[in-house]
Amino acid sequence: MAEQLAEYLVGVEDFLQWESAQEFKYELIDNRVYPMTGASRPHNLITARLIALLINSLHSRDCEVYPSDMRVQVDDAGTYTYPDAVVVCGEPRFRPYAMQDTLLNPALLIEVLSPSTELVDRNQKRRQYLQIPSLIGYLLVAQNKPLIQAHLRVDSDWRYQTWQGLDSTAVIEALDCELPLREIYRKVGVE
What domains can be seen in the chain, in order of their start residue? Predict the structure, then answer.
């Protein structure tokens, strides 16, 4: 059914009402519905470690860290996603009438790449995420090797940066946050 829905354009309000009644989560990207699939063991380990590191690193700052159940309104036109991890700093703002389940002002969005979602994460999501005024960073995290690719806002420009190898540490300067790849990939079985 989700594959059929992905073929049809839907309105935002229709999507939000429909999705709230579903057993599983769906994303709306460019007004197209995409099912959220289950994650592999490496995907879950990496996501859990990233969230733990972010919580520990940001504990003294006015920031909150959310797992993949926090929906993000990317734009008004028809993109609502569930990133693998979301950081908001300052007062979180939510979509009116959405029961605080749709965040409007993320600071950092993280997607752990999966074969089935990598093209969308790298292309449509990246293009749209980088338009969010509050966003300071978008991280793409590989599952099969220790690699983080980042788009980081520096003043009004976006800078692309990568960290590769278990001895690397991803540094998000705007959050004063360090993410050691050795910790992120612990027990994942990558070299």
Answer: 39-184 (3.90.1570.10)
